[in-house]
Amino acid sequence: MPFNIDLHTHSFFSGDGVSSPEELIDTARRKGLHGFALTDHNTCEGIDYMLRKGLMRPDGLPVDGFLAIPGVEVSTSDGHLLCIGVTLPNMKGYPAREVCDAIHERGGLAIPPHPYDWFRSCIRESVLKTLPVDAVEVFNAANTFPFFNRKAYDYAEATGLPMIAGSDTHHESSIGTAYTILETDELTLASVLRQIVRKNRLVQNPLTPRDKVRKTWNNWMRLRWRHRIKMKKEWG
Known about the structure:
CATH class: Alpha Beta
Order of helices and strands: EHEHEEEHEHEHEEHEHH
Number of helices: 8
CATH superfamily: Metal-dependent hydrolases
Number of domains: 1
Structural class: alpha/beta
CATH architecture: Alpha-Beta Barrel
Distance between the termini: 39 Å
Radius of gyration: 16 Å
């Protein structure tokens, strides 16, 4: 059965995200997604939040037919690296190879996001070639230029690495703009992780100009005061 999963999303637990996990889940459901990976920047606090609120299960099963997947986007010393399927301690600034090893030790997948987009802290190809990554994000809806996605696709095709697509949403309105269609028998964390490293269909739509402006504004201005107010109300 095909399951639509957005493998790159951010909540207000990221410094540049504005939406709560509940808002992401509600909008994702309305858009026909079956799940998403929460990959906030350098923190798994959002994962703790979802577990505490009953939005995610520690055994990797869906909640009310929707699968929230643990993850994190690590700002390694070599560029950004997605950890999918497990949580990590704060490894910001560690070499990408050490982060890959930590991900694999915990049973997760290491996936470079937006490679070749040198405006957005990508891992350069010279380093990428040395890393034991499990797949490549070949379509990032927020990439600066379409050319960067094409380069990522060419790299994955040349190396035989599996491919994923993600929205890189920082606001619930753009979740599911791009996503990966995973053909699995069941909607569980274990089955999703097994299928990611196989051949999958991708839905590839770029962010709208409005969403790109919103993302850039959030990233530049770092509306942390707003995040703190929201998290205090929601997280307690």
